[in-house]
């Protein structure tokens, strides 16, 4: 038994992890979700923008590799925006975000009858990163002369009055990489002083706190838990809320394994070189 | 047959049976969407077979994906960058304003970049393109990094400290930032007061590394939850909750 | 010739680098126009850089196929995926490559949705299993510092999911405080250090001290 626990086959851990997710998913385990101020700040900003019929920019900067974490944020924010008559302009610094952004717009615009060109537009992917942001800040119509469907941005109702980034009432970056701290804040927010919010993968979230306290970012959704909070705020549960039951159970399983590993280490491991 | 071969055949057999049932019972529609879901489930399970051990099914899905993703990138670069920003304006030069003429410069630089693939006679041209990109990138980033990541970060660190909970937190942040910087400052020997400060810095770093590690575990598990959700709801079309 | 191969790139990097810095500080419409033009150029050259990257990847696999190295069949599969997807992209659901991209139908969209998305998403999710196994094997409180790391990770892992509040009502607040105060302090310290390093590297590039982008050879 002792030998077994010290040298547990990793495939046994794999099975525990798999069951820890499959069983709560099958049972659709639901738990009450705690709302944090950082997520509430984004929600409140969208409400404010809605009250004055404003326009926001959403930068879709993630790919299928982080789809389960970030796509629910995109869908929840779009639902909230369309419900409150917030106009949305979408774009991407990440190439494989294009198909995901289109899908998010397709799902949510149908639900609320949002009209393409009037209520929202998707501009597509452009290269350049920071250069693109400077371009957009100085002259938006020059950076994106056309949307992805070939319409002129100077003629589309949703973009014709946007001359630079400062004309957006809010810029929300949905990210799985360095686009907020590497592109949007230094090349955009710093110069054009727009209100900036972030939805990101949990891996990135801890690195963003300095920007929250400095006010360079007014709110943040981190990972699936952040997405679940937003879904709770708009009272429309989606994939993130559904995943929180499994997330809770599997966290407990992993913590149990960590504790077990440490117990074995203190009981036997130290004499045996740590049970590596 | 070896044990692995038996597992491989059994896996394919079970997958086939499940899909025959799903299509037979109309859970999966007999159209492109239904076939797509079937294919996506096959790719998902093939990749998960890696958990047992590396195998041809995993490699098949992995390499097919690499090719598809490369073509996807190429496609987006064409349809939203090269075609509308380069080809279209340059092909209509006569009817457009002078400003389009300037586009010849980055186009040439871009083509210079591609000379890196050619023989040694011309490949030096690519250096000019790289010099432009790297030099301009460096120049644009310097003032912005100083403003956004240095000055804007120092300012909230050095706020007046009041005898309140917020004041205490600000003090802890100040101590943390300073001691972490001391820890990373290798030019001074870490002994005496400097040693104490760097030790405190390590504690702050350990808390933040622990937080990052916890968040990383959380992120990876969320991705797995997403895929399990796909298999249960989109492929097997289960009505949840089952129990 | 040496001037063209070596000195000219260094001069260009210096010139555009200095312009990049100066236009930031000159609040003149001329400077802004120059900045706008240069950043537009940058965006377009960056697109060509992506082409170069894709070409290098495909050439790597092509060499494997040509030399019939072990596993060359898999490299051939990369081509199958690439060529198939490129044909669909060119077809553009009947519109051809000289019209805007068709985004809601056609085989290209289908391939993205049913091949690229599941493959990419699954590959990253596999890490969940390995990180769980690694946590069991290596996450040990060997030293006081390691113990701090371990406790911090556990508090975050419980405090950030709904079950944390059920276990102990203040856990979400404790986790939040940890992120907002000590985590923030350490991350800011790292950020300041990294940013100083980034500025130094950028200056070295502009002044031609750092020149690895020129590649090897003369």
How is this fold's topology laid out?
The complex is a heterotrimer of chains A (276), B (243) and C (218).
Chain A: H1 2-6, H2 10-27, H3 37-51, E1 55-61, H4 67-83, E2 87-92, H5 98-112, E3 120-125, H6 130-138, H7 140-143, E4 170-175, H8 179-192, E5 196-200, H9 209-214, E6 219-222, H10 223-233, H11 239-269
Parallel strand pairs in A: 1-2, 1-4, 2-3, 4-5, 5-6
Chain B: H1 3-24, H2 32-48, H3 56-91, H4 104-114, H5 120-123, H6 125-154, H7 165-184, H8 192-235
Helix pairs in contact in B: 2-3, 2-8, 4-6, 7-8
Chain C: H1 2-25, H2 29-66, H3 72-91, H4 107-138, H5 144-159, H6 162-167, H7 171-206
Helix pairs in contact in C: 1-2, 2-3, 5-7
Model description:
- The complex is a heterotrimer of chains A (276), B (243) and C (218).
- Chain A contains 11 helices and 6 strands.
- Chain A has 276 residues and is an alpha/beta fold.
- Chain A folds into 2 domains: 2-20 and 245-275, no CATH class; 37-240, MTH777-like (Rossmann fold, 3-Layer(aba) Sandwich), CATH 3.40.50.
- The longest helix of chain A has 31 residues, at 239-269.
- Chain B has 3 domains: 1-91, no CATH class; 97-158, no CATH class; 160-235, no CATH class.
- Chain B is built from 8 helices and no strands.
- Chain C folds into 3 domains: 9-69; 70-138, no CATH class; 141-218, no CATH class.
- Chain C starts with a helix and ends in a 12-residue tail after the last helix.
- In chain C, 41% of the residues are buried.
- Classes of the chains: A alpha/beta (276), B mainly alpha (243), C mainly alpha (218).
- The interface between B and C is large, with 114 and 124 residues.
């Amino acid at each position: 038994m002792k030998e077994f626990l010290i040298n547990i086959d990793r495939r046994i851990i794999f099975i525990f992890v798999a069951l820890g997710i499959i069983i709560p998913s099958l049972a659709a385990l639901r738990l009450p979700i705690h709302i944090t101020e950082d997520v509430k700040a984004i929600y409140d900003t969208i409400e404010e923008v809605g009250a004055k019929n404003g326009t926001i920019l959403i930068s879709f900067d993630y790919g299928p590799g982080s789809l389960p974490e970030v796509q629910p944020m995109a869908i929840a924010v779009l639902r909230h925006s369309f419900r409150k008559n917030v106009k949305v302009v979408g774009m991407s610094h990440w190439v494989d975000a294009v198909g995901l952004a289109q899908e998010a717009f397709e799902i949510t615009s149908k639900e609320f009858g949002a009209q393409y060109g009037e209520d929202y537009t998707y501009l597509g992917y452009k290269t350049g990163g920071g250069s693109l942001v400077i371009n957009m800040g100085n002259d938006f119509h020059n950076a994106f002369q056309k949307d992805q469907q070939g319409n002129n941005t100077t003629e589309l109702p949703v973009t014709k009055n946007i001359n630079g980034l400062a004309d957006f009432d809010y810029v929300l970056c949905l990210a799985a990489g360095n686009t907020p701290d590497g592109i949007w804040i230094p090349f955009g927010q710093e110069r054009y002083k727009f209100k900036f919010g972030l939805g990101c993968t949990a891996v990135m979230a801890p690195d963003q706190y300095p920007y929250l306290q400095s006010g360079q970012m007014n709110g943040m959704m981190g990972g699936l838990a952040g997405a679940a909070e937003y879904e709770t705020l708009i009272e429309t549960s989606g994939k993130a809320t559904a995943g929180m039951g499994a997330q809770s159970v599997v966290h407990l399983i992993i913590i149990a394994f960590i504790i077990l590993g440490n117990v074995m280490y203190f009981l036997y491991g130290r004499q045996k070189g740590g049970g590596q | 047959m070896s044990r692995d071969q038996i597992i491989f055949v059994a896996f394919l057999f079970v997958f086939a049976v499940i899909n025959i049932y799903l299509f037979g019972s109309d859970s999966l529609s007999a159209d492109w969407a239904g076939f797509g879901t079937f294919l996506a489930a096959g790719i998902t399970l093939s990749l998960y077979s890696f958990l047992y051990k590396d195998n041809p099914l995993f490699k098949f899905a992995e390499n097919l994906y690499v090719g598809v993703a490369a073509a996807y990138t190429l496609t987006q670069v064409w349809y939203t960058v090269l075609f509308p920003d380069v080809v279209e304006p340059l092909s209509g030069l006569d009817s457009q304003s002078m400003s389009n003429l300037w586009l010849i410069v980055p186009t040439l630089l871009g083509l210079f970049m591609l000379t890196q693939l050619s023989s040694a006679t011309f490949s030096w041209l690519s250096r000019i393109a790289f010099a432009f990109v790297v030099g301009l990138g460096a120049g644009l980033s310097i003032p912005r990094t100083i403003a956004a990541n240095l000055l804007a970060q120092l300012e909230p660190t050095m706020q007046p400290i009041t005898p309140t909970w917020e004041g205490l937190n600000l003090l802890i942040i100040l101590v943390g930032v300073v001691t972490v910087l001391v820890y990373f400052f290798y030019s001074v020997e870490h002994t005496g007061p400097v040693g104490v400060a760097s030790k405190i810095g390590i504690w702050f770093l350990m808390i933040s590394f622990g937080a990052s590690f916890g968040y990383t575990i959380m992120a990876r598990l969320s991705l797995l939850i997403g895929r399990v959700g796909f298999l249960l709801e989109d492929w097997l079309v289960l009505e949840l909750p089952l129990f | 010739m040496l001037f063209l191969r070596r000195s000219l790139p260094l001069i260009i990097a210096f010139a555009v680098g200095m312009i990049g810095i100066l236009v930031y500080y000159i609040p003149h419409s001329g400077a802004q126009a120059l900045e706008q033009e240069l950043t537009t150029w940058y965006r377009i050259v960056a697109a060509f850089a992506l082409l170069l990257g894709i070409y290098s990847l495909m050439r790597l696999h092509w060499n494997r196929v040509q030399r019939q190295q072990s596993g060359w069949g898999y490299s051939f599969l990369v081509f199958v995926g690439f060529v198939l997807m490129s044909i669909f992209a060119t077809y553009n659901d009947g519109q051809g490559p000289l019209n805007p991209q068709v985004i809601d139908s056609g085989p290209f969209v289908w391939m993205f949705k049913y091949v690229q998305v599941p493959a990419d998403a699954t590959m990253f999710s596999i890490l969940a299993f390995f990180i769980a196994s690694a946590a069991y094997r290596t996450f040990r409180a060997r030293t006081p510092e390691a113990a701090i790391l371990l406790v911090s990770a556990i508090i975050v892992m419980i405090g950030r999911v709904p079950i944390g509040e059920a276990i102990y009502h203040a856990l979400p607040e404790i986790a939040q405080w940890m992120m907002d105060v000590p985590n923030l302090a350490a991350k800011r310290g790292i950020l300041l250090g990294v940013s100083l390093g980034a500025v130094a590297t950028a200056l070295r590039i502009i002044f031609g001290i750092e020149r690895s982008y020129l590649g090897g050879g003369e």
